[in-house]
Amino acid sequence: MPAARSAPAGTTPPQSWVWGFGRLAVYAYYRVDRIGGVLPDGALLLVANHPNTLIDPAVIQTTAGRRVRFLAKSTLFAWHPLSPLIRRSGAIPVYRKMDPGVDTSRNVEMFSAVAAALAAGEAICLFPEGTSHAHGRLEPLRTGAARMVLNSGAAGHPVTIVPVGLNFDALARFRSRALAVFGRPVDYADLVASYGNDEAAAVRTLTDRIEQRLKRLMVEAEPRHDLPIVERIDRLYAAARGASRDARERLGRRRLIAAGMARLREQDPARLAELMRLVEEHLASLARFGLRERDPDQRIPAAAGAASTEPGSQLSLRWPAPKPGPRPAWPPASDSWPWPPSARWPSSGKRPSGAPPAPSSRCAGCRCAPAALCADDARRSPTCSTTCAHGSSARRATDGPPRTATP
Question: What is the model's pTM?
Answer without folding.
Answer: 0.71
